Amino acid sequence: MFFGPKDSRPETLVAAELARHRAAHEHMATRYAFLPMIARLPAVKWQVAAPEEVEARHAGRLSAPEAAFPQPEAAAIEPSRAVAGAYGPEHWLRFRAPVLGDTAWARVSTPEGAADPPTLIFLHGIAMENDMWRGAADPLTSGAIGGLRVIRPEGPWHGRRRLKGWYGGEPAIGCGPLGMLELFQAWVAEVACLVAWARATSRGPVAVGGVSLGALTSQLVAVAAGHWQADLRPNALFLVATSGAVLDVAQGGSLSRAVELQPRIEAGGWTPETLERWLPLLEPTGPPAMGPERVVMLIGESDDLTQHEGGLALARAWGLPEANLFTRQQGHFSVSLGLLRDRAPLERLTGILGGAT
User: Of 57, 143, 248, 296, whose CA is between 20 and 30 Å from 108?
Assistant: First the structure.
């Protein structure tokens, strides 16, 4: 109904979306039936790829900085029809993912009556599939953050893109280092395509950002964009619950400890030395394409998943101004939910975009 040739009435589209959302929510909620047996189920389906397989698939990306995340070819992005949302029209985008080859999706929320709005492309965390859940708290509602158009991509292996037999985002962990390498490779290229679409549909500036896994991906976008053509470079960056030390997250973060990631990858033949070789494809290895004055970071001092120290070290390495670094006495999840009440980081971002050229 939203993408097909028949032009349905608005009320028909709204009814279809409500039915889709209800069905998706009920499908996702079936996982609660497994709670009584959760202690007997493995947290992750482990299929750790050996170092030799990773070498064969990704060694060429280490040949030069511009080879790590090359500029993707232009994507034919198809917008759906729009329906009225709480703060303005909402619609989806879909296109062929340049790396994975499946269909990439994104939801677009535009403020009512906005002409040439600034855009924030905001990436979710691992296993966070908000377009499949009803009533999910959303600090980035368009009407609440200064007129930004918000694009929420559906990340590789999440939501409609889940692989059969895996839950949302599970391959990123279960395949060991190969999982994160390929998720970052795929998502960085998809974000570049969305930056191009945002620029083609509005004269406003474009920011890229995300929370947790989405922030780790966004900071790679920010560095890689320095090797892309000018119109693919974001004007600003917004990082929530991030770290510049991805290897530390994998080795000592609370999620990694909970699923016993480190012993699993060691059993798969990985050592600290073989892991370190791949850091240029996992961590930001240079300055962002935008100046540090256009990077906003929000981190939690009690974050034990993407540890606070790693985020602080990245902010210092990049030379973020004091006004752009927000630290809170919060943990990994509460720091992003805190944006529902604490608008200062978002207000800083919108102020930067207001002066961007």
Answer: 296
What letter does residue 31 receive in the DSSP assignment?
G
Neighbours of 115 (CB within 10 A): 8
Mean pLDDT for the chain overall:
93
Question: What are the sequence ranges of the domains in the chain?
Answer: 42-354
Q: Tokens 């590789």 map to which residue?
A: 156
DSSP label at residue 81: -
Residue type, 66: E
CA distance 17 to 247: 40
Say if CB 90 and CB 131 are below 8 A apart.
Answer: no
- pLDDT band with cut points at 50, 70 and 90 for residue 38: confident
Residue 141 clears pLDDT 80, i.e. is over it: no
Asked if residue 3 lies in contact with residue 16, where contact means CB atoms within 8 angstroms, the answer is no
- Please give the C-alpha separations between residue 3 and each of 81, 93, 94, 198, in angstroms, as whole numbers: 7, 9, 9, 19
Q: Are strands 325-328 and 295-300 parallel, antiparallel or unpaired?
A: parallel
Burial of 37 (0-12, 13-18, 19+ CB in 10 A): exposed
Q: Judging by beta carbons within 10 Å of its beta carbon (0-12, 13-18, 19+), is residue 217 exposed, middle or buried?
A: buried
Q: Going by C-beta distance under 8 Å and a sequence separation of 6 or more, which residues neighbour residue 229?
A: 71
- For 42-354, which CATH class? alpha beta
* Cβ proximity of 45 and 165 under 8 Å: yes
Query: Which one-letter DSSP state was computed for residue 294?
Result: G
Residue 256 DSSP class: H
Q: For residue 135, is it left (φ>0), alpha (ψ between -120 and 50) or beta?
A: left
